Each structure stands twice: as C-alpha cells, then as structure tokens.
Predict the 3D structure of the following.
Amino acid sequence: MAYPGFGAYGGYSGQIPGMQMTMGQPMPGAVANMPHGAYSGYSAYSGTYSAAADPMWPYFAAIAGQDGEVDAGELQRCLTQSGISGTYSPFSLETCRIMIALMDRDNTGKMGFNEFKELWAALYAWKQNFMMIDQDRSGTVERHELSQVIAAMGYRLSPQTLTAIVKRYSKNGRIFFDDYVACCVKLRALTDFFRRRDSMQQGYVNFLYDDFLHCIMAI
C-alpha cells in the first residue's frame, strides 16, 4: 500500500510568508529549490551551519521564549500577526498545538529554529492549496471542495471517512484556513503513525490500546 508522503503538502516553491508581510510575499531566507520530501530531513542545517546567519533567524528570535523555542501560544501570536489565514482574527490555538506535536521530534512540546522553518514551508504549501480551491476569495472553502483536495493530496478514503472529516472541521458548512491546516496536520500525523507500524505496507496493523491512545492524545 502506498501512503501519501510529505510531498502531499502541495506546491512549495521556496517562498515562505513572514510576520507583518503580505501573504505570498517571499520572506528573507526562503529555501530555494527544496525538493518534495525534504520536510522530513531538512538537510540545510548540518555541519557547521550557524542559525544566527540565516535571514529568517530574527523572525524566530522575535517570538521565541527565553528558552530559545516556540510554544503553542507564541506560535498562535505569530500566525495571527502574519495574517496567513487571510484575516487578523486569532489563529486557532488547538491547531497550533497539533502543528507543534507534528514537528516536535525531541518531545519538548515546543519548536526549535529548524522545526520553525520547516513549519513555515509546510504552511505556505497548505496556503497555496487552500487558495486554489477558494476561488471566490471568501477565506473559506466548502465541504465538497475539502473532500476534493484531500483526494488530490493522495489520500484514498471512503465516503464515510470523508464525511466524518468534513463534519469535524467545518463550521456552518464552511472550512476556515486554520481548520483546514488542522485537518492536513492530523491526516499527515495519523498516516505517519499508521505507516510506521505497517512494516509490510499492507494497509492494516495490530497495535496496543495504549499505543493508539498515545497517538490520538499527542496530536
């Protein structure tokens, strides 16, 4: 069974939206020509690379806590100020929590600089996908459009599962960008959790109840 990969985030072009910048304007330090799949390894930070020399470092340092990492509240303020959702209303705190859970490889509950940059790349790709289906520029998409984009990202889900997803992430029949991001993150995280346990790539696994709860509660 083939599982959707990191490339399912969409057409990342190397331009990352920045705080206090117009959506779509490149941020300094954007990673040019990043191949699909680089999200999981992020090889740009190896060897003697100095994060402080990165043009994006000041943006990170401006929102990071004294510990040099970004928590969910700090990420929420960053995304709200960036206007990436199309408005300046508060970005969903719950969505910020699950994004950090996806990126948090060292289990600190926060993001370091490398993880922060990876998240901006993924957010940009999600934003491009969202804008493609939000053709009337209302800042929301309809239920059937969400189902279409999920399928376009490579997920092969039953109509019943798609209906459950749409009900979970829609408000009065419309899906806002932060809910769309939450849906993308959870699909990716749950798929990755399942894929790691499906060593034979058969589409089914056996795992303990506690293992299942750990996955569900962590994201």
About this structure: Confidence is low (pLDDT under 50) at residues 5-49. The CA atoms of residues 166 and 177 lie 13 Å apart. The two ends are 24 Å apart (CA to CA).
